[in-house]
Amino acid sequence: MGNQPSADRDHDTDPVAVVFPGQGSQAPGMGRLVYQHSARARQTYEEASDVTGIDLVKVCFEGDADDLAETTYTQPAVLTTSVAMVEAMREKLSETGKRLRPRLFGGHSLGLFSAAVASEALTFRDALIVVAERARLMSSFNADRPVGMASIIGLDSAAVAQLCEEATRSALDRVDVANHNLDTQTVISGDVTALERAMERARELQARVIRLKVKVSSHTPLHEEQAHEFALHLDEIPLADPLEPIISNISSRALRTAEELREEFRAQLRSPVFWAENVREMARQGVDTFVEAGPGHVLARMVKRIQDSLTAVSLDDATEPPIPISALPKDLSAEGSR
To answer: Of the residues 25, 82, 109, 189, which is catalytic?
Structure first.
């Protein structure tokens, strides 16, 4: 589906994808351990607080679940924690004379902005600015229109799409598929009234239904206007070609240029995330190990469920020094790794 890697690039990179979670991965205390163990992580939080005007150390380490569910806090907090973790990983690898050069980067929704920073397509400062605008647009939409999201587990995506269609009554009372996470785990998003009808129908079909702890909707045609406004803002932000490709959430293609990445971000708010296909495409491009950088381990767990032959770890699971690279597979952190 995506472009095949060249032999030269295979030779120069490790068969690793570094991937970044999105909104919904936040948790009280996130990033505290890596902050305590890494100077570069501390610098990341300090820069983020200066740029956003939000005390992100306080938000991440002292905020409760309700504080972190506020979109205007959630998105810069998740971005900052994710970037802090990848910076700490690089710092600790360097201290031990090692280096890791991922073949690909990936991210789930908001996580693509973390991927853009890690691949040097976007500066951290500009990522914070653009994510703050993204959060503002999503939050303002929710202020005028009650919306939400839910995970449907146990039905395939076609069945979920059908129940969304049945639950939709009008353009102002609709619900759509937002994320194809696993073959039998799909996230839906939309107006609360339609969302609740879809949730009830899913329960009738014996599915497990989880209402997500987010106060927004995303990745649906509801956000056509916000996507257009966001695109105008994005056009003012400089982007560079990523050092290594980033996998598109929408098409699963490898994004290799600044313009391809810009087009991805322009369409993101109104387009579903095809995470299961993203993972399969990365595996087709030779990746056998996934390293999740960010709060929690939801992506690492999903990777293993999508293709159990893959290795997947989360830096957030590191509990022993050196933090966070003690979470890496031994062959990645061994002497001589790139």
So the answer is: 109
Other C-beta atoms closer than 10 Å to the C-beta of 58 total 11
Residue 188 CA to residue 191 CA, distance in Å, equals 10
d(CA 3, CA 69): 37
For 246-268, what is each residue's pLDDT tens digit?
Answer: 999 999 999 999 999 999 999 99
Question: CATH number of the domain at 145-214, out of 3.30.70.250, 3.90.550.10, 3.90.190.20, 3.30.390.50?
Answer: 3.30.70.250
Q: Give the Cα separation of 163 and 175 in Å (integer).
A: 9
Judged by DSSP in three states, 34 sits in helix
Average pLDDT over residues 37-53: 98
Q: Kindly list the domain boundaries of the chain, sorted by start residue.
A: 11-141+222-327, 145-214
Mean pLDDT confidence for 191-220:
93
Which strands form 311-314's sheet, in the order they lie side by side? 254-255, 246-247, 102-107, 14-20, 289-292, 311-314
Specify the pLDDT at position 190: 96
Inter-residue contact 303 to 312 (CB < 8 Å): yes
Domain 11-141+222-327 superfamily per CATH: Malonyl-Coenzyme A Acyl Carrier Protein, domain 2 (3.40.366.10)
Give the pLDDT mean for 48-77.
94
CA–CA gap between residue 291 and residue 327 (Å, rounded): 9
Q: Which residues contact 302 (CB under 8 A, 6 or more apart)?
A: 181, 182, 185, 275, 276, 279
Report the candidate in 41, 123, 166, 112 with the shortest Cα–Cα distance to residue 299.
Answer: 112
Note if 219 is an active site residue.
Answer: yes
Choose the catalytic residue: 108, 180, 219, 223: 219
- Measured over the CA atoms of residue 46, residue 52, residue 53 and residue 59, the dihedral's sign is negative
Q: Round to whole Å and give the CA distance between 269 and 262.
A: 13
Please report how the helices 111-118 and 71-95 are oriented relative to each other, as an axis angle in degrees rounded to 10. 30
Nearest CA to 110 out of 88, 83, 148, 85 is that of: 83
